[in-house]
Amino acid sequence: MENWIGVGVWIVVGALVGLAMKILIKRPEEQAGHTLILALFGSFGAVVGGMLGVGLLHFDDPAALSFGGMAGAVVLAAIMTWTYRWGIRTMI
Length: 92
Description:
The chain is an all-alpha fold. The chain has one domain. It is built from three helices and no strands. It has helices spanning about 1-25, 35-55, 65-85. Helix 1 (about 1-25) crosses helix 2 (about 35-55), helix 1 packs parallel to helix 3 (about 65-85) and helix 2 (about 35-55) packs antiparallel against helix 3 (about 65-85). The longest helix is centred in the middle third of the chain and has 24 residues, at about 35-55. The N and C termini lie far apart (about 45 Å).
Protein backbone atom coordinates (compact mmCIF):
# COMPACT_ATOMS: atom_id res chain seq x y z
CA MET A 1 0.00 0.00 0.00
CA GLU A 2 2.90 2.35 0.68
CA ASN A 3 4.08 2.20 -2.92
CA TRP A 4 0.67 3.25 -4.25
CA ILE A 5 0.66 6.20 -1.89
CA GLY A 6 4.13 7.06 -3.16
CA VAL A 7 2.96 6.95 -6.77
CA GLY A 8 0.10 9.28 -5.81
CA VAL A 9 2.62 11.64 -4.24
CA TRP A 10 4.67 11.52 -7.45
CA ILE A 11 1.58 12.51 -9.46
CA VAL A 12 0.80 15.45 -7.19
CA VAL A 13 4.44 16.60 -7.10
CA GLY A 14 4.63 16.38 -10.89
CA ALA A 15 1.51 18.49 -11.29
CA LEU A 16 2.93 21.07 -8.88
CA VAL A 17 6.22 21.15 -10.77
CA GLY A 18 4.29 21.71 -14.00
CA LEU A 19 2.34 24.59 -12.48
CA ALA A 20 5.52 26.07 -11.03
CA MET A 21 7.10 25.90 -14.47
CA LYS A 22 4.18 27.90 -15.86
CA ILE A 23 4.87 30.59 -13.27
CA LEU A 24 8.64 30.57 -13.83
CA ILE A 25 8.61 30.65 -17.64
CA LYS A 26 6.31 33.43 -18.79
CA ARG A 27 4.90 33.49 -22.29
CA PRO A 28 2.97 36.74 -22.85
CA GLU A 29 1.77 35.66 -26.29
CA GLU A 30 0.50 32.30 -25.02
CA GLN A 31 -3.09 31.23 -25.55
CA ALA A 32 -5.19 29.90 -22.70
CA GLY A 33 -5.43 26.19 -21.94
CA HIS A 34 -1.85 25.15 -21.28
CA THR A 35 -2.29 24.72 -17.52
CA LEU A 36 -3.92 21.30 -17.76
CA ILE A 37 -1.38 20.11 -20.30
CA LEU A 38 1.51 21.21 -18.08
CA ALA A 39 -0.01 19.42 -15.09
CA LEU A 40 -0.44 16.24 -17.14
CA PHE A 41 3.09 16.38 -18.58
CA GLY A 42 4.47 16.99 -15.11
CA SER A 43 2.53 14.09 -13.63
CA PHE A 44 3.56 11.73 -16.42
CA GLY A 45 7.19 12.79 -16.12
CA ALA A 46 7.10 12.37 -12.36
CA VAL A 47 5.74 8.82 -12.56
CA VAL A 48 8.32 7.76 -15.15
CA GLY A 49 11.14 9.58 -13.35
CA GLY A 50 10.11 8.14 -10.00
CA MET A 51 10.17 4.61 -11.38
CA LEU A 52 13.58 5.21 -12.93
CA GLY A 53 14.93 6.71 -9.72
CA VAL A 54 13.71 3.82 -7.61
CA GLY A 55 14.98 1.29 -10.11
CA LEU A 56 18.43 2.83 -10.36
CA LEU A 57 19.10 3.83 -6.76
CA HIS A 58 17.03 1.47 -4.61
CA PHE A 59 17.04 -1.79 -6.51
CA ASP A 60 17.40 -3.99 -3.41
CA ASP A 61 14.53 -2.42 -1.44
CA PRO A 62 12.23 -0.53 -3.83
CA ALA A 63 10.03 2.06 -2.13
CA ALA A 64 8.26 4.88 -3.91
CA LEU A 65 8.75 7.34 -1.07
CA SER A 66 12.54 7.14 -1.16
CA PHE A 67 15.18 9.69 -2.08
CA GLY A 68 15.75 8.17 -5.51
CA GLY A 69 12.06 8.03 -6.31
CA MET A 70 11.33 11.59 -5.27
CA ALA A 71 14.46 13.00 -6.92
CA GLY A 72 13.73 11.19 -10.17
CA ALA A 73 10.12 12.38 -10.09
CA VAL A 74 11.04 16.02 -9.60
CA VAL A 75 13.88 16.01 -12.14
CA LEU A 76 12.01 14.33 -14.99
CA ALA A 77 8.85 16.36 -14.35
CA ALA A 78 10.90 19.56 -14.52
CA ILE A 79 12.66 18.43 -17.70
CA MET A 80 9.41 17.49 -19.45
CA THR A 81 7.53 20.65 -18.51
CA TRP A 82 10.52 22.89 -19.27
CA THR A 83 10.86 21.27 -22.68
CA TYR A 84 7.17 21.84 -23.35
CA ARG A 85 7.33 25.49 -22.22
CA TRP A 86 10.50 26.07 -24.25
CA GLY A 87 9.25 24.22 -27.33
CA ILE A 88 5.80 25.83 -27.36
CA ARG A 89 7.47 29.08 -28.48
CA THR A 90 7.65 27.81 -32.07
CA MET A 91 4.00 26.70 -32.09
CA ILE A 92 2.46 30.03 -31.11
